[in-house]
Structures are given as structure tokens and as C-alpha cells.
Specification:
Elements: E1 3-4, E2 10-11, H1 13-33, E3 38-44, E4 49-56, E5 61-69, E6 74-79, E7 85-90, E8 96-102, E9 109-116, E10 123-126, E11 132-137, E12 142-148, E13 154-162, E14 167-172, E15 178-183, E16 188-195, E17 200-210, E18 217-222, E19 228-233, E20 238-245, E21 250-258, E22 270-275, E23 281-286, E24 291-297, E25 304-311, E26 318-321, E27 327-332, E28 337-343, E29 350-357, E30 362-369
Antiparallel strand pairs: 1-2, 3-4, 3-30, 4-5, 6-7, 7-8, 8-9, 10-11, 11-12, 12-13, 14-15, 15-16, 16-17, 18-19, 19-20, 20-21, 22-23, 23-24, 24-25, 26-27, 27-28, 28-29
Length: about 375
């Protein structure tokens, strides 16, 4: 018997086979578009530079192609939604955000704008339209919103809101209607409604999601299904699976895991987390054990199964996964190096393929596909 189409009509086996073939061709075409080289951008705080490295996705090798002096302690970075612009926050005075144009063919960057920020910012991110830049200040206990012009240049902040202690990340949700702000020192995630027309933030109801005392919520990612989120806690190195109410922009706890290797006795100091583009795997970094934890994601429930731990660069504060989900790049703040890993698509396990020296204190990685 034929299957039923989306409009209720019957689809013959032959037609269904043709549709599946066409879908497969479309998928392979999309993969092919991103199978060429990619550019990686690594901020190096203590050598005050951004390194541009070209990733060969056939060989799993990287080559440094550019070093850009930024003139200050550069740490968090963010890309515009169309990947044409790179934003870098300077955490030494004068606090500022620098805007760089991205060459789509070579990955080279050129500074095209500089604007003030109200404090030292631990995290920056644009909204989904690329018209607004959010920034979270760990020492200043605040978040700011800056307007981004039609030319892609981030301007002066238009609003500053106080938060709880140690705001660490400001993450816009897929609908572009809600902003989540982790407060590491107050053990909470602030929940805001966002107006993309004006850049205005207003508290959601409830205004905060409370976490375990002393957990230190640091970074959060939202599952592509829009129903789940993952929250990594710095101070106890735990990882939460959360239910996400996309209508209200609010979180609730489902389950918690420990991200440290079994038997580890180090003081917990978790840092970063990223999903593969297909959301099949989640990775978390922990700085004192110098490891990346590998998690298999259940597509329906969002639940996690620990696959294993990969030893990596010393003190891995930042890492990034490329758009194909085949490559992971991790940097070490103490080793001052970058390692490229090939991701096994069936198990999520990591195989190192290249290692290159970076500047001093590399801490953040962003990536774009090159044309």
C-alpha cells in the first residue's frame, strides 16, 4: 500500500522512492556545499590577537592564515547570522566590541568598526536578525543591548540591565522572542521577553529559573526541537536537561548528570558545551580534568547517554563544531594549542587529526564555511 502525503492523498511506492531519492540528493548537495574548507577564528586573550586558521575538511588539518592584533584582552566572539561579520569583545579597558568583515572566500577579517561596551563582557551573541548584540558581564553583574547597523557594524549600547551576581551568557532562543541569561554567582537563569523591533527586554513570568545552590550556571544551548535545553554548571561540573517552554520563554528541570570523568578527584571547573548540527551528540568541556565529555542525545526525549571522555588541550575553555558536524576544534588556555578532532558520525567519539600552536591563552573559537 502507498503511504499518505501531507495533504492526505496517497503516495505510491514509486513516487515515495522518487521523493526519498530527491531528498537524499538535496541532502548530499547541502553537505557538498559545506565540504570545502572552513575558517576558524580563535581569540587569544594574553597575546591580544585573533588567529584565523583554515580547516581542510578532507584531511583534517589546519593552517594559520592570519594574525590580527586587537590591542586588548580579547575573549568572547560572535558571528552575524549570515556569517559576514565577526564581533569580538575586549575585556581590558577600554571595554569595547570590535566589528570585523569576513572574506567569504579566504576567511580573512578586517576591522570595520569599534564601539564601547559598559563593562568587561564574558559572552556576546547577536539576535536572529543580526540587528542586535547582547553582552553579559561577569564582573559587572549586568547585560547590555547594542544596535547593529545595516552595514553590520555594532554600535554603542542602547540599554544596560542589572542582573544577579556574575552574568555569564546571554542566549537568544530560536524564535528570537526570548533571552536567557545565566547568573553563575546567583545560581539562576534570568528569563526575558525580547522585542526585536525595539531591542527592549522585559522580564518573563517567572523572571528566573533557580538552579542548585553552588552549581554556578555558566553556558546554555537550546535543542533544535525548541522543547529542550542543556545547561552546564561551572562550579560543580554538572549538566542539566531542561524542558523549554517556547511560548513563555521559561525553563524547568528534567534531569542532571555529572560531566567529570569517573573517579575524578579534581575541583570541578566546567566551561563550554555544543551540540552537533544534527543534535545527535552533545560535548562539554572541563578545565581541571582537561577533558571533553561526549554525550549521545535521544532525539525524542532529549535525554543524554554518556559515550566517554576525550583527553584534550590543557584547560579547554572553548571549542567549536563545524557546520557539517564532522569536525571539532578545541583550544587550551594553558597548553596554548589547538587540536582538530574528527567526529565519528555513529558514536560521536573523537579522533585527533592535527595539533597547532596558538597565541597565549586561546579561549574562544568561531567557524564559517568558505566559498
Amino acid at each position: 500500500m502507498g503511504s499518505t502525503g501531507s495533504n492526505g492523498s496517497k503516495v505510491s511506492p514509486a513516487a515515495r522512492t522518487l521523493l526519498l531519492f530527491a531528498s537524499a540528493v538535496a541532502f548530499m548537495t547541502l553537505q557538498g556545499c559545506a565540504s570545502g574548507p572552513a575558517a576558524a577564528y580563535i581569540s587569544n586573550a594574553d597575546s591580544k590577537e585573533i588567529i584565523v586558521a583554515r580547516l581542510d575538511r578532507d584531511k583534517g588539518t589546519v593552517e594559520i592564515t592570519q594574525r590580527v592584533d586587537v590591542g586588548g584582552t580579547v575573549m568572547p566572539m560572535a558571528l552575524s547570522p549570515d556569517k559576514r561579520f565577526l564581533y569580538a569583545a575586549i575585556r581590558s579597558e577600554p571595554f569595547e566590541v570590535q566589528t570585523y568583515s569576513v572574506d567569504p572566500h579566504t576567511g580573512a577579517i578586517a576591522r570595520i568598526g569599534v564601539a564601547p561596551l559598559p563593562d568587561s563582557m564574558a559572552n556576546i551573541m547577536t539576535d536572529r536578525t543580526g540587528q542586535w548584540l547582547f553582552a553579559a558581564s561577569y564582573p559587572g553583574h549586568k547585560i547590555s543591548v547594542s544596535a547593529i547597523g545595516p552595514d553590520g557594524i555594532a554600535g554603542t549600547f542602547i540599554s544596560v540591565l542589572p542582573t544577579g551576581k556574575n552574568a555569564h551568557a546571554a542566549i537568544i532562543d530560536p524564535s528570537n522572542k526570548h533571552l536567557l541569561v545565566t547568573n553563575l554567582g546567583s545560581d539562576q537563569v534570568l528569563q526575558y521577553n525580547f522585542d526585536a523591533a525595539t531591542g527592549k527586554l522585559t522580564p518573563a513570568e517567572p523572571a528566573a529559573f533557580k538552579t542548585r545552590a553552588g552549581s554556578g550556571p555558566r553556558h546554555i544551548v537550546i535543542h533544535p526541537d525548541g522543547k529542550h535545553a542543556y545547561l552546564l554548571h561551572e562550579l560543580d561540573a554538572t549538566l542539566d536537561l531542561l524542558a523549554y517552554d517556547a511560548q513563555r520563554g521559561t525553563l524547568s528541570l528534567i534531569k542532571t548528570w555529572n560531566t567529570l570523568p569517573p573517579g575524578s578527584t579534581v575541583k570541578p571547573w566546567a566551561a563550554d558545551l555544543h551540540l552537533t548540527p544534527d543534535a545527535n551528540f552533545l560535548y562539554t568541556s572541563e578545565r581541571n580534568s582537561h577533558t571533553l565529555a561526549i554525550w549521545k542525545v535521544d532525539a525524542s526525549s532529549g535525554e543524554l547517554t554518556l559515550v566517554g571522555h576525550q583527553p584534550t588541550e590543557k584547560q579547554p575553555r572553548g571549542f567549536q563544531i563545524d557546520s557539517t558536524g564532522r569536525w571539532l576544534l578545541a583550544v587550551g588556555q594553558v597548553s596554548n594549542g589547538l587540536t582538530v578532532y574528527k567526529i565519528d558520525p555513529s558514536t560521536g567519539l573523537l579522533t585527533p587529526t592535527a595539533q597547532v600552536p596558538m597565541g597565549k591563552n586561546p579561549n574562544w573559537v568561531e567557524m564559517v564555511d568558505l566559498k
